[in-house]
Design a protein that fits this description.
alpha+beta, elongated
Length: 234
C-alpha cells in the first residue's frame, strides 16, 4: 500500500475543517448548540484552523484571510466568555438552585434570570398558588416545606423544587393550591419577567422549559413512589 502523500493529508485536513464548519452550523440551527457557547466558538476555531492548514497545498490569499479572521473572532469570543464567567458571582443558595433545576444554564443567562427575581422568607401559611386561579409567579423552594392541596385534600408536599412551573408562562389556572407549611425560603420570579426574558433570548426559553420539565418529572416520580409505598402498607 502506497503511503499517503502530503497533498492528500492536507486535503483531508481541509475536508475535516469543512465538516466542522457545517456540523457546528447545523447544530446551531437545530438549537442543540448556542451561538454564545464555548462549544460553538471552539468548533469554529478548530474548523478555521484546519482549513487554513490545508491551504498550504494551494495557497489562496482571500481564503487565508477569511480563515485567519474566523480564528481571531473565535479567540475573542472564547476570551469574552471566560471574562464574563469569571466576573459573575453566585451565592450558595443560587448555586444550589442552578445545580438542582438548571444545571445546563450558562452563567450569563443564569445571572440575568436570577437578577429578575427575589429571595424571600415566606411565613407559615403563605399562599403560592390557588387552585383554579391564574399562576402569576414561579417559585423555587430552597428550604422549608409546602403542602399541595386539591379539592380540599392534601395530595402531596414539596420540600425542594419548583412551584407553578406548569402554567406560569401561559398564566394558566393552577391545578392545585400550594401553601407553605412552615417558614420557607423561596426564590420568586414573576411570569411577566420570564416572558420578557424569553422574548429577548430564545435560548433562555429552551433552558427554562428543560429545567421545569425535569423538575416536574422528579415530582411525579416522587409522587408515584409515595403512592406505591402507601399501597404496599395497606
Amino acid at each position: 500500500m502506497e503511503p499517503f502523500s502530503t497533498d492528500q493529508v492536507l486535503n483531508a485536513v481541509g475536508l475535516a475543517g469543512v465538516a466542522l464548519y457545517l456540523g457546528s452550523y447545523t447544530l446551531l440551527q437545530a438549537g442543540i448548540l448556542r451561538g454564545n457557547s464555548y462549544t460553538y466558538a471552539i468548533l469554529n476555531l478548530c474548523a478555521s484552523s484546519l482549513v487554513l492548514i490545508s491551504l498550504i497545498v494551494a495557497f489562496n490569499l482571500p481564503s487565508a484571510l477569511i480563515q485567519i479572521s474566523w480564528i481571531v473572532i473565535s479567540l475573542m469570543g472564547i476570551a469574552r466568555l471566560a471574562w464574563m464567567n469569571n466576573r459573575m458571582q453566585f451565592s450558595t443558595e443560587e448555586q444550589a438552585m442552578l445545580r438542582q433545576v438548571f444545571p445546563d444554564m450558562p452563567r450569563p443567562i443564569a445571572r440575568r434570570f436570577l437578577n429578575r427575581g427575589n429571595w424571600i422568607n415566606a411565613e407559615e401559611g403563605a399562599l403560592l398558588t390557588e387552585e383554579g386561579e391564574p399562576v402569576r409567579n414561579l417559585y423555587f423552594i430552597s428550604d422549608g416545606e409546602a403542602h399541595v392541596t386539591s379539592g380540599g385534600q392534601i395530595i402531596g408536599a414539596i420540600t425542594s423544587g419548583l412551584v407553578g412551573e406548569m402554567n406560569v408562562l401561559s398564566c394558566g389556572e393552577a391545578s392545585a393550591t400550594v401553601h407553605t407549611k412552615i417558614r420557607t425560603r423561596l426564590f420568586v420570579i414573576s411570569g411577566d419577567s420570564l416572558r420578557k426574558l424569553i422574548s429577548r433570548d430564545p435560548d433562555f426559553r429552551i433552558l427554562l422549559q428543560n429545567g421545569m420539565s425535569r423538575d416536574t418529572g422528579r415530582k411525579l416520580m416522587r409522587a408515584n413512589a409515595s403512592l406505591s409505598a402507601q399501597a404496599t402498607t395497606q
